Amino acid sequence: ILNVEQSPQSLHVQEGDSTNFTCSFPSSNFYALHWYRWETAKSPEALFVMTLNGDEKKKGRISATLNTKEGYSYLYIKGSQPEDSATYLCAFLPGNQFYFGTGTSLTVIP
Amino acid sequence: DGGITQSPKYLFRKEGQNVTLSCEQNLNHDAMYWYRQDPGQGLRLIYYSQIVNDFQKGDIAEGYSVSREKKESFPLTVTSAQKNPTAFYLCASSLVGGQAFFGQGTRLTVV
After folding, report:
1. Residue A59 and residue A21: Cα distance in Å, rounded?
2. Cross-chain residue pair A49–B41, CB shorter than 8 Å
3. What is the 3-state secondary structure of A35-96?
4. What integer pLDDT is reported at residue A103 of this predicted model?
5. Is it the case that residue A3 has pLDDT exceeding 90?
6. pLDDT tens per residue across span B58-109
7. Would the pLDDT of B26 be above 70?
8. Which of A22, A45, A46, A68 has its CA 20 to 30 A from that of A105?
9. In terms of DSSP bridges, do strands A99-100 and A45-50 run parallel, antiparallel, or are they unpaired?
């Protein structure tokens, strides 16, 4: 069983604050790293698919970086809004299987 | 619209019964997956399939069975051998190595 860790487990921030989360994964046998957003009562949806060391992806106020050599990825949210409240999951793919972290639950307080 | 559909949304099972959870996708994805989520835990892989008529056990396959007779369908049976089946079950599909698309989940409760 591969160990994929996310921190923090939960986070409460004020509207307008910027925040970031961490995903740690094994540094060997890397194929891809995915980030998903999972809103309450909805299905998880992909945010980013990252495959190259040093990759940086951006979608609006959300961005992610990847370091495959040391086995971590950061997700950043700039100027958090209440609609950003969700659980953010990362998934490590050494091949065709997904190994998910336990997620970071973000609550943005208006 | 393409997507992945799970049914039912809620399911109640009596002790000793087998129940089957449905997962259907029309995304033409080769790979399909079943995950289980328990409170405070992440998604744990039960079974996955990368091609029709072939599937592999995940980390927690004991007490579960699957079939993949059609590309679109990957039903999960929770058997009476699964001692603690109450959980949230999530089905997903993907192109091999691509992003996962998820169903809306089935919440199974043993009564």
Report:
1. 16
2. no
3. EEEECCCCCCEEEEEECCCCCEEEECCEEEEEECCCCEEEEEECCCCHHHCEEEEEEEECCC
4. 95
5. no
6. 999 999 999 999 999 999 999 988 889 999 999 999 998 789 999 999 999 9
7. yes
8. A68
9. unpaired
Quick: pLDDT tens for A52-72: 999 999 999 999 999 999 999
Q: Tell me which residue has tokens 């487990």.
A: A9
Q: How far apart are CA B24 and CA B31, in angstroms?
A: 12
Decide the pairing of beta strands B54-57 and A32-38. Answer: unpaired
Indicate yes or no: CB of B42 within 8 angstroms of CB of A89: yes
Show residues of chain B in contact with A97, CB under 8 Å.
Answer: 45, 48, 58
Percent of chain B with pLDDT over 70: 98
Residue A17: burial class (beta carbons within 10 Å; 0-12, 13-18, 19+): middle
DSSP state of B95: S
Judged by CB atoms closer than 8 Å, whether chains meet at B97 and A46 is answered as no
Tell me the chain B residues in contact with residue A99 when contact means C-beta distances shorter than 8 Å: 45
pLDDT band (50, 70, 90) for residue B9: very high
Token digits of residue A52: 């190259």
Strands B87-94 and B76-78, how do they pair? unpaired
